[in-house]
């Protein structure tokens, strides 16, 4: 499938023009960043795994009526997606308190929340993706209307229900995750689509019994065995098998890790 010009390059993905109007090709890189770009590395094979894991989750969400930008995976690193106008908000869903929530509020790490908690961050690297209230989103029109925000909240909760069950069935606790949404014209109608990716880069996934981290926190916290953890998630989801073609990708150790001092 021919790629058009590069539309956007992010930290972990590149977006190219797709073969038809309204489509794009999403390319998964091996680059990893954390702490607002202060920590950077290349993790060989990460893009291949995230492409497969995200395809698996988004296609399952499509099947239960949660509309996503995914059209199809086209190769080891790329997906054909609908081109959306992305909303500048990260929707964070939490089932267990950890990460920035515990730091911000002093809640003990691992506290189980009585119901899923949705938080919103304004997507802005210069400002460090600050936490915002619903009122900011509506006031500054980061989402079209209050009713769109309500619809997205419902989509977040449905996605959480589905993913919690899916992961629980394979012995993984879905601690928290980040979603992004966009608007696209689908058959003449402006439609809210779940966009970006859902992968161990964007979720916290803990082994149910040992609480071993199977996600990007292994990179953030220098825990090592990052690729092995992502492979474990893919293997449990039934996406890759011990002897699958994915193993032909050489999984090396992360290369240089740069930590810039402020
Ligand atoms: P926290 O706010 O605790 O750092 O992150 C909450 C959840 O959202 C985690 O699962 C984390 O991976 C995800 N998340 C939040 N912001 C980002 C982001 O900018 N990039 C990625 N990949 N994930 C994020």
Keywords:
single chain, 262 residues, alpha+beta, 6 helices, 26% helix, binds guanosine-5'-monophosphate
Q: Mind summarizing the main beta sheet?
A: 7 strands, antiparallel
Distance between the termini: 42 Å
Order of helices and strands: EEEEEHEEEEHEEHHEEEHHE
Strand content: 25-35%
The number of helical elements comes to 6
Q: Given the C-alpha coordinates, what overall shape results?
A: globular
Structural commentary:
The protein is 26% helix and 32% strand. By secondary structure, it is α+β, with helices and mostly antiparallel strands. Strands 8, 9, 10, 11, 12, 13 and 14 form a seven-stranded antiparallel β-sheet that branches. A five-stranded antiparallel β-sheet has the order 1-2-3-7-6, covered by helices on one side. It has a three-stranded antiparallel β-sheet with strand order 4-5-15, with no helix packed on it. Helix 1 packs parallel to helix 6. It binds guanosine-5'-monophosphate (5GP). Guanosine-5'-monophosphate binds next to strand 9, helix 2, strand 12 and strand 14. Guanosine-5'-monophosphate (5GP) binds next to strand 9, helix 2, strand 12 and strand 14.
Please give the structural blueprint:
Layout: E1 6-9, E2 13-17, E3 23-28, E4 31-34, E5 39-42, H1 46-63, E6 70-73, E7 78-82, E8 85-86, E9 89-96, H2 99-105, E10 112-122, E11 131-132, H3 134-139, H4 146-168, E12 172-186, E13 189-195, E14 203-207, H5 217-220, H6 226-236, E15 258-259
Antiparallel strand pairs: 1-2, 2-3, 3-7, 4-5, 5-15, 6-7, 8-12, 9-10, 9-12, 10-11, 12-13, 12-14
Helix pairs in contact: 1-6
Bound molecules: guanosine-5'-monophosphate.
Guanosine-5'-monophosphate binds at residues 90, 92, 99-101, 129, 176-178, 201-204, 216.
């Amino acid at each position: 499938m021919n790629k058009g010009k590069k539309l956007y390059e992010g930290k972990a993905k590149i977006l190219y023009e797709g073969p038809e109007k309204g489509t794009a090709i999403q390319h998964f890189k091996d680059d990893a960043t954390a702490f607002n770009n202060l920590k950077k590395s290349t993790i060989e094979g990460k893009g291949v795994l995230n492409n497969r894991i995200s395809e698996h989750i988004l296609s399952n969400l499509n099947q239960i009526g949660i509309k996503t930008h995914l059209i199809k995976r086209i190769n080891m690193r790329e997906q054909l997606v609908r081109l959306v106008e992305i909303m500048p908000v990260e929707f964070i869903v939490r089932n267990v308190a950890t990460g920035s929530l515990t730091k911000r509020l002093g809640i003990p790490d691992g506290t189980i929340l009585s119901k899923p908690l949705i938080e919103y961050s304004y997507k802005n690297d210069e400002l460090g993706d600050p936490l915002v209230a619903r009122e900011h989103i509506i006031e500054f029109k980061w989402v079209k209307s209050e009713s769109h925000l309500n619809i997205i909240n419902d989509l977040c909760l449905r996605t959480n229900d589905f993913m919690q069950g899916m992961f629980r069935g394979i012995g993984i606790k879905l601690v928290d995750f980040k979603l992004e949404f966009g608007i696209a014209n689908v058959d003449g109608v402006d439609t809210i689509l779940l966009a970006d990716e859902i992968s161990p880069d964007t979720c916290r996934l803990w082994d149910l019994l040992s609480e071993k981290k199977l996600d990007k926190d292994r990179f953030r916290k220098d825990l090592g065995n990052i690729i092995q953890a992502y492979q474990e998630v893919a293997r449990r989801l039934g996406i890759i098998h011990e002897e699958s073609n994915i193993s032909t990708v050489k999984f090396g150790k992360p290369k240089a890790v740069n930590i810039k001092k402020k």
